[in-house]
Amino acid sequence: MTQTVFAPWTDPAAKPLIRFRHVTKRFGDFTAIEDLSLDIYEREFFALLGPSGCGKTTMMRMLAGFEDPTEGTIELAGEDIGAVPPNKRAVNMMFQSYALFPHLTVRDNIAFGLKREGKPKDEIHARVEEMLRLVQLQKFASRKPHQISGGQRQRVALARSLAKAPKLLLLDEPLGALDKKLREETQFELMDIQEKTGTTFVIVTHDQEEAMTVASRIAVMKDGALMQVATPSQIYENPSSRYVADFLGDVTILEGKATKLGDAYEVHWAEGQPPLRAKSTLALADGAGCHLAIRPEKVEIHGEKPADDNVLRGKVIDIGYLGNISTYHVQLANGQTIRAQSFNTERDTRRAFTWEDEVWVNWTENCAVLLDH
Amino acid sequence: MSKLSPFNVVSLTLGFVFLYLPMLILVVYSFNESQLVTVWAGFSTKWYGELARNEAFLDAAWVTLRVAFFSSTIATVLGTMAAYVLVRGGRFFGRTLFSGMIYAPLVMPEVITGLSLLLLFIGLGMDRGILTIVLAHTTFSMCYVSVVVSSRLVSFDKSLEEAALDLGCSPAEAFRLVTLPIIAPAVISGWLLAFTLSLDDLVIASFTSGPAATTLPIKIFSAVRLGVTPEINALSTIMIGIVTVGVIIASISTKRAKVKAEADERLAQRTE
Ligand SMILES: Nc1ncnc2c1ncn2[C@@H]1O[C@H](COP(=O)(O)OP(=O)(O)O)[C@@H](O)[C@H]1O
Ligand SMILES: [Mg+2]
């Protein structure tokens, strides 16, 4: 196993494929994107994640050339693409609505972009067949878009946007219309295709699981600004802000005041509750306000008081049974609820804890994330 | 199928008699042997023969068809362009004013439209003839085309055009290869509407036609002022026949399109 890790963003010599430089986009007096700078590298599968209306589609439309930045520049492979019209950009987009041409067959939809390039007929034909094979639609090539199912339409849209072998493929919530199972299958299909073709993908999604599954890096957005840009595991394990921690996955967030204690901090967070220890590289002044984010799977639940740090006492008020895991909602004396998850590795064992049980929860000082905003 | 109640039978009969009795009488009397329109003297097709020999009517019919063809074609091109700019042009200065103004001729009394065109042609020193009628008809039927086409464009998914641009089309190519084929049915109905409006028009044509060119409605109208002849009945019957055939063809093709759409939907569902 001599696999080199794909991480061009850590290499200072690597040249980004896309470069947003201080981009601001206003619609009238509404600011959709504010002073945003971002580098995306070749062969990345980059996900834009954020709630509806945070400006994800606007970013895509600026890359595709349908909107111009109000301020700042966007570079593609080192060139400012501000003045380049959409039809001259080596960028293709898969639209949220698929935007298949209803008057053309599946084959002609896929061939559309190739014909515009004026390639020889047999070359176009070969490329279209290749695309049809890739998305497994050979049998439906002569159908019109309204004669195929939703999932097939989505694959036609993908094939059409891939056919011209663009440097950059933009996918705007490509799987939004699919049901969960088909969605998951297609996510893996997309990753497969991305690997096979070596295209750089930028995908927009508001589904955090989807972003975690497919992406090499994720940008979490809020109100037209980037909150954090990092790999899925960094975003999950080391969120930089309360917003990001809350946005991805399940988390309990406690608010308190930090005091430095060796290489860690002690967080005083409630009257009558013991302070909590958390390792952190943050530089916080003594007594500074902070948040502590704890993921439920990092929290252990015990029937007897353990001898560790970070032990809180409470009682079970709710149990969420999901088959593979159970989530316990443990209420402390001050009313705060802490969630703890445990894997149900054995079949048919009596649940360890039940409603109203007196329990202790704890986690190690490495597991809680200290956040200063 | 449920049976109609007596009341419904009566209303249906009355309604249709009201609508079609005048036309029925006209058709029946076109086959009248007699010279007099109001006296039945046995079946004959001789007036159709007379009509075929009447140069003046045939000329007028030919003028009418040419005027209708050219004016509706020009109106379709201009009306579609206007609709496209008004729906897709984004916000430009005076857009609201322009889109309001394009509807104004629809409600303008024809007499006024006709008169103003007449004044314009006189002012320009143009001899009145086929050209002036074509221009006049283009002017008023263009608004109808633009209304029909813009109502289609409003519901047209803009991302289709963007997809075309994205795949390498210039804006003009995107219009020709994507927008136009998809809105074609609306453009064709606009053309048909403009064509019928032109065939039908009497008022504006009377202002803008000259001795060199008379349209069929003008010819019929002036002939009737000298008295209705069975020949005119025959002519009108032919026109009714043409319109009926047109309507039947249109409804059959609509029906076919519907059946096909249903079949396609079943096909799409089967492949889920
Ligand atoms: N053409 C436009 N005119 C005015 N406002 C717009 C336009 N496009 C987007 N917006 C606004 O910009 C914000 C971001 O939109 P969008 O990028 O579509 O969000 P997202 O895709 O993240 O849901 C929204 O508040 C939206 O209303
Ligand atoms: Mg969006």
What does this structure look like?
The complex is a heterodimer of chains A (373) and B (272). Chain A has 373 residues and is α+β, with helices and mostly antiparallel strands. Chain A has two domains: 14-243, Rossmann fold (3-Layer(aba) Sandwich); 250-371, Nucleic acid-binding proteins (OB fold (Dihydrolipoamide Acetyltransferase, E2P), Beta Barrel). Helix content of chain A is 23%, strand content 33%. Chain A has helices at 56-64, 106-116, 121-134, 150-163, 180-197, 208-214, 232-237, 242-247; strands at 18-27, 30-40, 45-49, 71-76, 79-80, 91-94, 168-172, 200-205, 217-222, 225-230, 252-261, 264-268, 276-279, 288-294, 300-302, 311-321, 325-332, 337-343, 358-362, 369-371. A six-stranded mixed beta sheet of chain A has the order 6-7-8-3-9-10, sandwiched between helices. Chain A has a five-stranded antiparallel beta sheet with strand order 13-12-11-14-20. Chain B contains eleven helices and no strands. In chain B, helix 3 crosses helix 10 (216-225). The A-B interface holds A 64-66, 85-87, 91-93, 95-97, 99-103, 112-113, 116-117, 140, 143-144, 146-152, 160-161, 164 and B 157, 159-160, 162-170, 173, 177-178, 181-182, 261, 264-265, 267-269, 271-272. The complex binds adenosine-5'-diphosphate and magnesium ion. Magnesium ion (MG) binds next to helix 1 of chain A.
Topology readout:
The complex is a heterodimer of chains A (373) and B (272).
Chain A: E1 18-27, E2 30-40, E3 45-49, H1 56-64, E4 71-76, E5 79-80, E6 91-94, H2 106-116, H3 121-134, H4 150-163, E7 168-172, H5 180-197, E8 200-205, H6 208-214, E9 217-222, E10 225-230, H7 232-237, H8 242-247, E11 252-261, E12 264-268, E13 276-279, E14 288-294, E15 300-302, E16 311-321, E17 325-332, E18 337-343, E19 358-362, E20 369-371
Helix pairs in contact in A: 2-3, 2-4, 3-4
Chain B: H1 6-30, H2 46-53, H3 55-88, H4 95-107, H5 110-124, H6 130-154, H7 158-166, H8 171-200, H9 203-208, H10 216-225, H11 230-270
Helix pairs in contact in B: 1-11, 2-11, 3-6, 3-8, 3-10, 4-6, 6-8, 7-8
